[in-house]
Amino acid sequence: MSALKVYTLANCDTCRKAVKWLRAQGISFEERAIRETPPTQAELKAMLAAYPGELRRLFNISGSDYREQKLGEKLPALSEAAALALLAGNGNVVKRPFLIGGGVALVGFDEAGWGAALLPK
Q1: What pLDDT does residue 1 have?
Q2: Check: CATH 3.40.30.10 for 4-118?
């Protein structure tokens, strides 16, 4: 499996749970700070392919940046390219944790879902 990258925010409880779970399972990964190093356009496109038609799922809809920019109102009118550019340019609006690599693309932490995707069958 190619290297997994997990984009996290230091003060995000869900991100900490995800990282702790990955370590407990012995899964190697590279952790990246989502604010300083948002996912690339290619990574965002790969994530969107894993959730076809669910562009909104890539956004941190509970975050202050999302609310301040009124993205809930703007998102339906944005093209996919514009939405991905917005996400790639502002890690605060990206749903986290954001795990990508090795044919796996997961956004948000769900232990059962991550286990099904990452652990041997």
Answers
A1: 42
A2: yes
